[in-house]
Amino acid sequence: MTHEHHAAKTLGIGKAIAVLTSGGDAQGMNAAVRAVVRVGIYTGARVFFVHEGYQGLVDGGDNIREATWESVSMMLQLGGTVIGSARCKDFREREGRLRAAHNLVKRGITNLCVIGGDGSLTGADTFRSEWSDLLSDLQKSGKITAEEATKSSYLNIVGLVGSIDNDFCGTDMTIGTDSALHRIIEIVDAITTTAQSHQRTFVLEVMGRHCGYLALVTSLSCGADWVFIPECPPDDDWEEHLCRRLSETRNRGSRLNIIIVAEGAIDKNGKPITSEDIKNLVVKRLGYDTRVTVLGHVQRGGTPSAFDRILGSRMGVEAVMALLEGTPDTPACVVSLSGNQAVRLPLMECVQVTKDVTRAMDERRFDEALKLRGRSFMNNWEVYKLLAHVRPPKSKSGSHTVAVMNVGAPAAGMNAAVRSTVRIGLIQGNRMLVVHDGFEGLAKGQIEEAGWSYVGGWTGQGGSKLGTKRTLPKKSFEQISANITKFNIQGLVIIGGFEAYTGGLELMEGRKQYDELCIPFVVIPATVSNNVPGSDFSVGADTALNTICMTCDRIKQSAAGTKRRVFIIETMGGYCGYLATMAGLAAGADAAYIFEDPFTIRDLQVNVEHLVQKMKTTVKRGLVLRNEKCNENYTTDFIFNLYSEEGKGIFDSRKNVLGHMQQVGQTHHAVTRGHSKPPPSSQSLPVASHLLVAVGATTAQACRLRSHRITSLYLGNGLRDSVVQPLYLGQSFSTLALLPF
């Protein structure tokens, strides 16, 4: 055990932590509660559940119960909050807070973790600021002793933001937002089929109160025709523009229209724009068969996404450490996500900025409100306007010919990347070509021109509609060069995994012999393995992660029913342990074996001994994940046989190789850039003397980690036939960057 681990195991001795959830529920809250409990116990602290939010804190009694390690088992996959949440009027009054303080002091609790929205966190800060006065009143009334008052002389507060609206300033993503986007996209995909069948227009109203994040990212993820959000009210003549837009879509051959409306949508005068208003407008002016669907609380329910489970877990860990490291002078903080890092920020500063957004909208200062939402929100808005409202120029004089292709194994999100690449290229006046079957197709001349409608409806489809192969270009330079000349290709977009990266390097080497290869090209990382350098996330990894989590949830249910059973699950990833590690965290695995963390037979033996002890508790099941190439000798079969032999008479073992099911499926909203407050969002980056400008954002993650859909790729001003440095589109959690090979 390292010195750091030993220090952490003693950090909480003699301390007590209470955790509560308040306000509206959000998927991922249970993951945060679980992390607070288990990390708190690991550090030696006592941890208490506060049931029913602040109401339970005020009422006390059985509403405040000590938690155990086993009491948070099987919580990760549950939506909502298992410890309950309630709106509490009593806590808003000082008398209610006095009762709450009494209940905490009597249990020796001086650390409070609050999971909720800005209102809940503001209440926690008020509680902390009054703490000394509350103790003084309790002591004067004889409800607590002087010794109890001394032991509880200060209260540490840490907040975690749990809200599907993603309306809290200071954090890129709030707990629950990603899962809500998953629910919305699932519904949009389902509605699309019936809309196409009957040539209907659907108006979908999503939650968000005064924040349009859900509506905006949904529109990017599904390719909606129009979106209404409160931060950016439409122009005064929006009715005319909307109807013209819908008509143009139908005239291009589309059989449906999708309009997304945030529940707080308004016009520039502050008048609400309702779903029924929009429906009546479309029916009256265009005569389209139009239906309204109000999604409502279905957005709050369901199983949390992998991203929300991981986010909740990471924030819960950071919250415990912040509480135990706190001093009387430490201000109340909120654990936020900045880029891909959990950070601690002053609670009330973040709350104040959040209130400033609402005030700016109330005062019709919409530009300021948009800026206060953050750079990612603004970038997503710009990408939406570009993809939804800008039409390709009629004249292509001086345009360039750009080809796009998929290389390597299929990954969910590839089709969305192709769609955005093609449409952005057309908007910029370029001639866009698509290449079938990767470099092999480029060598064989399997190339065709793609128009606007060619990629219609591709956003949510999994796999690769263009076809993709692992073939590298080195042996076909002559044929590839000939086809580059034949089709006058002046730029190349390669979407794929490590094979795409390797293929790009081979093209660079080939320039020494073939001048035709001296064209600019850019690689967009798309692989479920998430193993390409230069990028934190790759297209497809989030969808694969969600697929693994869904499978593990079902397997855990099977294990819970049969009792005393351990499942060994093999995941993809090659030599990269990303999927196994993150799925292990999101699914609550007992162990995860990966190539990056070498393990020995002794480590396997320790894990077996752990499972033997676990079977003596109330949790009589086990889950072990193994990356497919973590060790050439300790194979899945070897580990299965070892566990079966060593666990004989105590537990039995089963193995599952998930295989290619991880590569396919409907593209999830995503995280990514969806992860958007972090979705990658799009931002222009001038590169190599105006050769390329690239912008991207994952949708459906489109929002963040998540089966990332690239929502924009600019191929910009003046591709030249000179020798240029190839570029790689790398993605950190909240920004995109062009990196040299």
UniProtKB/TrEMBL annotation:
Cofactor or coenzyme needed: Mg(2+)
Reactions this protein catalyses: beta-D-fructose 6-phosphate + ATP = beta-D-fructose 1,6-bisphosphate + ADP + H(+)
InterPro entries assigned: 6-Pfructokinase_euk (IPR009161), ATP_PFK (IPR022953), Phosphofructokinase_CS (IPR015912), Phosphofructokinase_dom (IPR000023), PKF_sf (IPR035966)
Residue span of region N-terminal catalytic PFK domain 1: 1-389
Pfam families: PFK
Binding site for beta-D-fructose 2,6-bisphosphate: 470, 527-531, 565, 572-574, 628, 654, 660-663
Cellular component GO terms held in the UniProt record: 6-phosphofructokinase complex; membrane
Residue numbers binding ATP: G24, R87, C88, G117, D118, G119, S120
Residue ranges of domain Phosphofructokinase in the record: 17-322, 402-667
One Gene Ontology MF term: 6-phosphofructokinase activity
EC number from the UniProt entry: 2.7.1.11
Subcellular location: Cytoplasm
Known regulation of activity: Allosterically activated by ADP, AMP, or fructose 2,6-bisphosphate, and allosterically inhibited by ATP or citrate.
Keyword annotations of the record: Acetylation, Allosteric enzyme, ATP-binding, Cytoplasm, Glycolysis, Glycoprotein, Hydroxylation, Kinase, Magnesium, Metal-binding, Nucleotide-binding, Phosphoprotein, Transferase
Catalytic residues in the record: D165
Main location: cytoplasm
Residues holding Mg(2+): D118
Biological process according to GO: canonical glycolysis; fructose 1,6-bisphosphate metabolic process; fructose 6-phosphate metabolic process
Pathway membership, UniProt: Carbohydrate degradation; glycolysis; D-glyceraldehyde 3-phosphate and glycerone phosphate from D-glucose: step 3/4
Ligand binding (substrate): S163, I164, D165, R200, M207, G208, R209, E263, R291, H297, V298, Q299, R300
Region ranges (C-terminal regulatory PFK domain 2): 401-741
PANTHER family in UniProt: ATP-DEPENDENT 6-PHOSPHOFRUCTOKINASE, MUSCLE TYPE (PTHR13697:SF59), PHOSPHOFRUCTOKINASE (PTHR13697)
Subunit composition and interactions: Homo- and heterotetramers. Phosphofructokinase (PFK) enzyme functions as a tetramer composed of different combinations of 3 types of subunits, called PFKM (M), PFKL (L) and PFKP (P). The composition of the PFK tetramer differs according to the tissue type it is present in. The kinetic and regulatory properties of the tetrameric enzyme are dependent on the subunit composition, hence can vary across tissues. Interacts (via C-terminus) with HK1 (via N-terminal spermatogenic cell-specific region).
Known role: Catalyzes the phosphorylation of D-fructose 6-phosphate to fructose 1,6-bisphosphate by ATP, the first committing step of glycolysis.
Family: Belongs to the phosphofructokinase type A (PFKA) family. ATP-dependent PFK group I subfamily. Eukaryotic two domain clade "E" sub-subfamily.
Protein name: ATP-dependent 6-phosphofructokinase
Species this chain originates from: Bos mutus grunniens
Taxonomy of the source species: Eukaryota, Metazoa, Chordata, Craniata, Vertebrata
Name of the gene: PFKM
